[in-house]
Amino acid sequence: MNLPRLSPLVLLLALPLLPACSPPPDSAQVPTSPRHIGELQGSGERSPFEGQRLRIQGVVTGNFSGGLGGFFLQDAVGEDDGDPATSDGIFVQWPRESEPRVRRGDRVRVNAVVSELGAEGATMTTLTGARVEVLGRGAAAAVVIREAPARAQDHERHEGMWLRVEAPLTVSGNDGLLRFGELTVSFGERLRQVSDVFPPGAEARAFGQEQDRRSLILDDGRRGEYPERLWFLPAPLTSAAPLRAGSTLEGAEGLLEQRGDRWALQLRRDLVIASQAPRPPQPALQDGLRVASFNLENFFNGNGRGAGFPTPRGAASAEDLKRQRAKLVQVLLGARADVAGLVEVENDGYGARSALAELVDALNAAIAEAEGEPTAGDYRFVSTPEALGDDQIRVALIYRARAVEPVGAPAALYSGAFEHGSRVPLLQTFKPLAGGAPFSVVVNHWKSKGGCENAQGGDRDQGDGQSCWNAARVAAARELLEWLDTDPSAGADGGRRLILGDLNAYSQEDPVRLLRNAGYRDALELAGRSGQFSYNFRGYVGSLDHALASPALASDVRDAAIWAINADESEAFKYRSHAREPDAYSAEPWASSDHDPLILVLRQPRADAG
Question: The whole model's pTM is what?
Fold first, then answer.
């Protein structure tokens, strides 16, 4: 059902109007104009006057000429069309240098062309090629919003209008906060990735519509990147007040803009932070042998000698590398994994100056310093005779030499789906030194959901919620299973295997379901901790990172958890240096990557647990 039209709250002071200016000389060529902006907007997604040059009057509700290249115009109080299905506001393109200068509260006459800007089916009605006359001062009204719309498309009736949201809003995503000055918020609980909850189908579509109707973007009124300050926040972000996802806000007020398939409120006043979501402690896990999976988000070390910056995908300077390395070491120290599968490591071999060697050396040095014993750091890495494919990044395996020992040579799959796109998977069998049966870990990083413009055939986005390159990821899952059926451990693991890594597929997507249908069990589910997530994309959370145990190993999974240190954090706390003040960086695990690490525990005794 549609929400009832709410009584407007007049927030601009009504002032006497000046006499109207004479119409422009070319007004004889202007067709009869609608009397109200609501008539111009119409009740559909596109204006019934599209392509026509019209004259319209209204009150300026927000001048964003410097940031958005225009201003918002709204019917004056008492002059709307009275139709709750039509919007009484509209955006007018009016670049910063345009004359006359307009300010909020100006009553203006606009002579312009009605245009629909944006992707087909998700356009914003806009006045372009405008000529503007300032007539005097006037008053417009803010619409008070106290709950989410009944349907996502109901936002259309408020497009371009001045809204005041009196309902509390939950920060669902802050990944665009530092770069774009925007927050993804939701009415009610946080937003979930549809394909992390339901497989493609009717239930997924219904759930997606429910998520979308509750979502909203709060923006700073600018199009540029990395603003000098986040003016709408009451104070800069700090470790004590990081504005993690899950925090709540009040006092959102601004102008509603359609941006593709989403809606953004261009803010015109400061927000109130009602609550700060706390940073959680490390997960309390049961005892046993620990295995972890962690996407490092492009750990590159230049030439390994303090030069070679900026790197292709990672640190831009030697100082940034130092900051990145310090954070990653803190994560690995906290995870206390006996075996860890790492993703997005620079594919530069295994020499002393390689990125992998540098990270392991730093980890061992940190352990030695903490324990006051030069030989305390006992992490080693698995090396292969040849490079793991020709991608700039690769997967890697590290392990504690006092807890496990490698059995046999590592194995890798270079063919099929892993020649291009999905990275070469790496398998190593390990024997627990405190007793117990050997097991294999195979770490993966499959084709991402990016670069959809290059996808062909079945790899194109099918509109089922799985994005593009799904066919490539399905092929990776199928070929991985076929390879494991050939027993690359040469009988050493007895079928006791863990598939882990960044599969770039959410929990209910085809590739992950293919693994489960083959008998592999999700470690979080086995541990009774389903519903956790490792990744946040545009405010929608889900798990791209997985750990799945083979039937022979499933009963040995004792515990598992996601360590929520990254997906809920702002980029402000990352290692990259930006022109911002103050610098929120600290050598802590928070915001060490864009993925959260996953840690699982096997029913195996730990040697020298530490």
Answer: 0.91
